[in-house]
Amino acid sequence: MTWQAIDYDTRGHVGIVTLNRPEKLNAISGDLRADVHAAFALAQEDDNIRAVILTGAGRGFCSGADLTGQVPPPEASQNARLDEMSWVGRWAKLFHDFDKPLIGAINGVCAGAGMSAALGCDVRIGSEHARFKTTFVERSLSPDSGMSWLLPRIVGYADAADLILTSRMVLADEAKSLGLLNRLVAHDDLLDAALAYAQEITRWPPLAVRTAKKVLQTNFESDLDTALKYESVGLSFARRATNDVKESRASFLEKRKGVYTGT
Q1: What is the structure's pLDDT at 60?
Q2: Residue from 45, 53, 24, 86 nearest 195 by CA
Q3: What SUPFAM superfamilies does the record tag this protein with (predicted)?
Q4: By CB count within 10 A, which of 116, 205, 213, 254 is most buried?
């Protein structure tokens, strides 16, 4: 497949999506949006891919919507014009609804909808160059792209209000203390660290991993009774990989690493 604004690579069971407009700090253009949606669909349908890393080329992770290009024409179809979410809502749903583990390798600035993309990852590993900025009020906007939902769930309401209402820059050390970053590594080691982390995940039964993510997301705001019921549903999904269930037991009894196929 030919990519206009990203690179898509695979390393074993890991897909790597690299936003590739470094001269614009990987600002979100129409081409970049289309490429990212296509790459995630490709990774979703490929059973060999068990986790995805999202990162950026050059100095930025993603600086948000590209405000320097031409204003795109209105969407042509009636369905598109009646879409209440518009592209920013679809952008947020793309990351949140992706049911394989998604690791953000945060190499530089994350701002606006680019910060929302980072927040949509399950785990964020950043370098000392990582920095976060909500940006919206500076543009006379309220938060979009899922930020008002994602940010308080990660850092809590008061810190989310602080970051959104002041639009201040958060550098890497503070981002780690707030929970915007789960791990902080040297910049030159960032991709290797993200790959090593992804590979920790991909060595386990893939259907169980995908179901575990789905159960976590579903039960995050559930009451206990509902959560326990959905855990039972999740167990039935995970155990559909009958060969992996047998391999898990056999590798445990034989004191060896399991070899899992997702079947």
Answers
A1: 97
A2: 53
A3: ClpP/crotonase
A4: 116
Percentage of the chain lying above the pLDDT 70 cut = 97
pLDDT at 29: 94
Q: Quick check: 51 and 12 in contact, CB under 8 A?
A: no
pTM of the model: 0.93
Residue 73 has pLDDT above 80, yes or no: no
Residue 20 C-beta-side C-alpha neighbours within 13 Å: 14
Q: Which residues lie closer than 8 Å to 98 by C-beta, 6 or more apart? A: 40, 43, 44, 52
CA 17-19-25 angle, 5° bins:
155
Provide the phi-psi class of 255: left if phi over 0, else alpha when psi is between -120 and 50, else beta: left
CA atoms within 13 A on the CB side of 26: 29
